[in-house]
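Run log, item B.
One chain of 304 residues. Sequence copied directly from the ordering sheet:
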Amino acid sequence: MSSTFLRDHANSLVVFADETARRAKDSPGDFFLQMAAKNQRAAALSVSKRASLLEADDMGELLDVRLIGPRANGSIPLDSFLETIGPLSKSWKYAAHRLRYGHDAVRGAASDVIGALNFKLAGLAHGSTHIYITGNAAPDLTGESLLQATLTQTFRLLNAGQEEFYDAVDAIGGKAAHQLGEFMKGLDKAGLAVQFSWNATRGAQRWEGRPDEITRVRALLDTVNEPERYNETIEGSVAGITDTGRLALRTAEGKLLIRFPLKLTEEVQKLKIASHARVKVETLKYWDSVGKRDVFKRHLLNVE
């Protein structure tokens, strides 16, 4: 069923309910007419809500979260809910701040970041503890959607193997990764598993947070230490610019990938393929304790 059909149906029910409500107002003593008006209004609101959720799903603004476990039988203790969803919400906000500005938030995420995401608890559904969360997928002044970028990188980290893990952590930042770890701890403590699904504009995303998968991601997150940081200037020819926030430069040392924040998108797009570029970057050196190697990640500060 399409969102357009459902919205048209909801509008028709509203018109029908309004007419019955007018008749009920003129006949206050008619019990059955009063009940009909009430039921029709409730039906119209229910279909309208379903239409809104389907519209949000079509636009990539709906995240479907299902908490699974013996304590998630359609309800969940409030403390358990807060210990899981609270850190997850913080992780998204920290990740969004990092993606927009290129650095972790000093305290909380900036108010413009929180406003751009506009996360809301949109409803509950039947089965386990089934939660709908919506956000705002509209593009900002850079032409990119902060919500889409944030959820894309979150799913990328959750599904990452050892080889891609440090790049995924680097994308969302240490604070967001830490809060994601707290979310996992909350799930463990509550004895819950989780399923995430999101109908992204670039294709459906899903994460099956079974107990063994939660343990795997937590183990990877536990290996992350604060990286060594230093600034450097890099020169080379532009080899590519991706819509996932990567600038590729060919240098004397080889091809280097440099992540750039959304706020520098317009500046980066002025560069031309094969042209010479000189950029200032912040380099982060992580120690991969599993692979026993240094991992370098570079973030663009400005184009000189």
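Observations after the first pass:
- Strands lie at 62-68, 120-125, 129-134, 193-200, 203-209, 228-242, 246-251, 254-259, 276-288, 293-303.
- The chain has a mean pLDDT of 87.
Flagged for discussion on Thursday.
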